[in-house]
Amino acid sequence: MILPLFGLLFAICGSSASAEEGGGLDIRIDEKLIYCAATLKERDSGFIHALKDGIPVTTVWNIQVDKIREYWMNKAIAEITLVRRVVPDLLSRSWILEDQASGISRKVYSMDAVGRFLTHLEYLPVLDRSLLAASTPYMMRVDVEMHTGEVNDGWWGNLLRPEQISMQKEFSLQ
Amino acid sequence: MKRIGMMRLLPLLMALVLLTITITLWPSSEADSVLLAWVNVGLMLVLALLLIQYGMKLLRERREPPPGSRLRAKLVIALVTMLMVPSMAIQIAANQMVERGMDVWFDVRVDTLLDRALNLAQGFYERVEQDMKRSMLNYISDATLISAASGHLDYRTVSTYLSEIMELEGWQKAELFDINELLVGGVQQGELSALQAESLSEAAKLSMRLGRVSTELLSRDGGEVAVGYAPIVGLTSVIGLLRVETRLPAGVIQNARAVESDYRSYRQLEHNRQNIRETFTHVMLFVTLLVVLVAGLVGLLFARRLTAPVGDLAGALRRVTEGDLNVVIPESSRDELGSLARSFNTMANRLKLNVEAIEKAQEDLTKALDNSRQRQYVLESLLANLHTGVLLVEGNGKVRLLNQAVKEILQLPDNWKPSVDILKASVGSLHDIGEFYTELSGQQEDHLQREFDIQIAEGRSLHVLARGARLDETGSRGFSGYLLVIDDISELAEAQRNKAWAEVARRLAHEIKNPLTPIKLSAERLQRRFRPQVDDERVFDVCTHAIITQVERLQRLIADFSTLARMPQPKIRETAVSSLLQEMEELFNSYHRLDVQPCDDNWSCCCDPDQVRQVLINLMDNALAATEGQEGKAVRLYARMVEQSIEWHVEDDGEGIDTASASQLFEAYYSTKVNGSGLGLAIAKRIAEDHGGVLYLVSREKPTHFCLRLPRYHEQMEES
Fold first, then answer.
1. Which residues of B are less than 8 Å from A92 in CB distance?
2. What is the CA radius of gyration of chain B?
3. Do A17 and B29 touch (CB under 8 A)?
4. Regarding beta strands B461-471 and B447-455, do their DSSP bridges make them parallel or antiparallel, or are they unpaired?
5. Is the pTM value of this prediction over 0.95?
6. What residues form DSSP beta bridges with A59?
7. Is the ipTM of this complex over 0.85?
8. pLDDT digits (tens, 9 = 90+) for B639-681
9. Average pLDDT estimate for B188-200
10. Do the two domains B128-267 and B573-719 of this chain adopt the same fold?
11. In chain B, at which end, N or C, are there fewer CB atoms within 10 A of the end residue's CB?
C-alpha cells in the first residue's frame, strides 16, 4: 500500500517540474560556424523590479547540440554555458553588465540595454561546422535559468535551481 | 465498545488530518524553499502512511488482538497526541510571531527611511555630476583649448593651461584630446599612475560624437572618481575632447555605498519576504514533524517495552485459560512487573502440579471404572446369554438384577424390574417364587432347592427347578442378599417321563407278549377240537371268540408300546410333498368325505417319508373317526410352504376337543377312544420333534385343525 502512494507522490512531483517553452530560437549556419540566436519572451518583468531595487539578476544560458537518434537517446555533440549578470549601481543609476564567460563588463544607463543583455543571445557561435555531418538531423536546445539575487554556488545550488525556460530546434547541414 | 472503536480509528483519523494538511501545504514550484517543503511533504506522507499502517493493523487485530496491543496503542496514541498538541501550538504561535516580525521588519517607515537615504546618496552623486557638467560647459568654446586641439599649441603650453583650469575648478585630473583621440596635453595632481593616457571610453566617444557634455562615475585606486567629458567645439564642428576627473570624498562615498548596500539588502529581503515566511514555516514544520516522528518512535519503543511484560502476562493467561500450563514468562525486570511475572510463574507451576495430580487420579479412576464396566459387561453378557434364569435379590427383598432368561421362562410381567419387591410382585401364578424366596430367607441353611409347577398363559404349565443361595457380605464392597436360579425342566421331566413309560412299556410288552400267543392258540384249538362236544355251541363260540379278540387287542397294544419304546431314527431324504398327499388320497379314496388338495409338484421336504406318512395316517384316522356319518367334504388335507418350512394341515368338521382333553392330547396313554391306546398322537408328536418340527393343535373345534410343520432342509432340522 505504501509503494503506490509514493509512486503517486513522485508522479505529482515530476509533473510540477516539467519545462516549458518560453522564447524563440534561431539557428544560423555559415561556412565555418553554427550560430545560435535566442530570445526570452518578456512575460515576466519581475527581474526589472529587482534590478531597479538594486538586486543583481543573472541569466544562465545552457546551449546543447545533440545528434538525433531514432531508437536511442540523443548523442551530445557540444554544450556551452553562458552566464550573464547585471549588477545595479543605485548611486549612479546605472547597471554593470558582466559576461562571466568572457570576463567583459560594461556599464549602461538604459534599462532597455539591460533587458536586451539578459534576454537576448545574438548569434552566438556555438560550434565548428566541421564537427557535424551533412544530412544528419541535429537538435539545438537552449535552457535558460534566471536567478534573482546572488547565484547559489554551493553544492545544494543544483537542488534549488529556479524554473528553467527551454527552447529547442532541429537543424541539419544541407 | 464505542471508545475502543474510536481508539482503533484514531490513527486513521489522524492520518486523514495529516493528509489534508499535506495537500494544503503542497509546495508550488516557484517557492525558494521548495526543497524543504518537499521534505516536509515527504515526512508528513511517511507519518500518514505509518499511521494508516498502524490503524489497519489495529483494525485487523480487532477480533483477536495480540496480548498488550491495546494498551500499547493507547500509550502510543496518548504520547503522540500529548506531543502533537503542544508542537502544533508552538508552530502556530511561531508563525504568528514571524508574521508580526515581518510586518515590523518591513515597516513602511523603514522603507521610507531607506528610500530617503538612497535619494540622499544619489543626490550627492547627481550634484557632483551637475557641478562638473556646469563647470565644463565653460570650456567647450575655450579659445586656448580650441587652438590646442587644433594643434597650434605645444604640449607644455597646453599642460600649463590645463593645470590652471584644473586648479581653478578643483579637478584632480585634466586631459585634452584632439579629434583623433590623441592626447594633446594632460595634468593631474600627485604622481602619474601611468605613462600612457587611458584610451577614451565609450561614454567619452559618445560625448565627442554627440557634442554633449557628459559624466560618468568610475571606481579607481580604491576610490571613486567622477569623470567628465566636454567636447571642444571649433568653428563648425567638434575638434577635441576635454576629459577631467575629480575624486569623490572617501567618507561620503563610503557612507553612500553603505546606504546602497543596505538598501539592496533590504530590498532583496523584501523581495524574498514571502519566501522567508514560507522557509520559516517549513523549518518549524520540519522540526515539529521530526519531533513528532522521533517522539512517536520513542513512544512506540517505550510503550513496547512497557507493555511487553503485560502482553506476555496476558498471553500466558490466555494459554492457561486454554489449558496450556507449560507456560513460563520471562522475569527480566526487578520492578512490580517482574514480581508479577514471578508470582504468575509460581502460580502456573502450582496449577500444573495440581492438574497433573488430578489427571493422574482421573486416569486411575478411569482405569478402575473401565475394569468395573468390563466386569459388569462380562457379567451382563453372561447373564444375557444364559438360558438359566437368574434373580439377584437384596436382603430387603428388592430385586437387584434379573436376566432375560428368567423373564422368558416365567413370562414375568412388566412390573418385574430392578428394585421391585419380590414378595409384592410374586402374585398369581408366580406365588411359588415368592414362597421359595420366603423359605430361603427364613431358613438357616445357605442353600435351598425346590421343584414346582407354574401355570403360565394359555393353560400351559411349566415345571421349574429353583435353586437359591444366600450371599453374605464380604469386605467393604460386598453384597448381602440372595441369588435365585430358575430352570425350566419341563422338557427334561417329560423326557424322563417318556423314558420311564418306555421302560414300563418294554417290560410290560416282554411280560405280556409271551403268554398271549399260547393263549390265543389254545383258544383257537379249543374252538376247533371241543366245539362239537359242547352243549351250547353259541356260548362256547362267544367265549372263545372273546378270548381270541381280546388277545389280539392286547397284541396290538403291546405292538404300540414297543413302537413307543423303540422309536427308530428317521431316515431323512428329500421327499416330494405332492407324492405324500397323493399317497394319502389313494389310501383313503374309499372315504368320500375326504378332500385332499393337491400342491405344487416342486415342493419338497427332507424327511423320513414312512414316519411322516405314519403321522398323517394317524391324523387322518382321527379326523375320519370324528366325522363318521357326516356328508360332504368334512375332512380336508392340504399342504403349505411357509418360509423355510412345509406344513401339512388336517381339518375336520367333527365335534371338536374339549379344553381338558386339548391340554393332554399329546401325552402318552391319553385317549378319548374306547379302543385307543393313547399313543398315536404321542408317537406322532415324537416323530415331528425327531424331524426338528412340531405338531400342534391349531384349533379345538369347528374345524378341529392340526398342523404338522417340518423344516424343508436337513440343516434346519439339525439346528432345530
1. 125, 216-217
2. 75
3. yes
4. antiparallel
5. no
6. A84, A146
7. no
8. 999 888 999 999 998 888 887 777 778 877 677 776 666 778 8
9. 72
10. no
11. N
Paired sense of beta strands B389-394 and B604-607, if any: unpaired
* Structure confidence by residue, pLDDT tens digits, B424-435: 888 888 888 889
Amino acid found at B163:
S
As a whole number of Å, the CA-based R_g of chain A is: 19
Q: Which three cell numbers stand for residue B145?
A: 583649448
Tell me the three-class secondary structure of B71-108, residue by residue.
Answer: HHHHHHHHHHHHHHHHHHHHHHHHHHHHHHHHHHHCCH
Q: Note whether B574 and B605 are within 8 A (CB).
A: yes
Write the pLDDT tens digit of every residue in B11-69: 788 889 889 988 887 877 655 667 778 888 888 898 889 888 888 887 887 777 777 77
Count of C-beta atoms within a 10 Å radius of residue A133: 10
- Name the DSSP class of B139: T
DSSP-derived secondary structure for chain A: -HHHHHHHHHHHHHHHT--EE-EEEEEEE-SSEEEEEEEE-----HHHHHHHTT--EEEEEEEEEEE--SSSPPEEEEEEEEEEEEEEETTTTEEEEEETTTTEEEEE--HHHHHHHHHEEEEEEEEEGGGS-BT--EEEEEEEEEEESS---SGGGGGG---EEEEEEEE-B-
* Partners of residue A89 in chain B, C-beta under 8 Å: 217, 260
| Residues A160, B38: C-beta atoms closer than 8 Å | no
Which superfamily does CATH assign the domain made up of B573-719 to? Answer: Histidine kinase-like ATPase, C-terminal domain (3.30.565.10)
Residue ranges per structural domain of chain B: 2-105+273-314, 128-267, 386-487, 495-565, 573-719
Residue A53 is nearest to which of B28, B217, B271, comparing CB atoms? Answer: B271
CATH topology classification for B386-487: Beta-Lactamase (3.30.450)
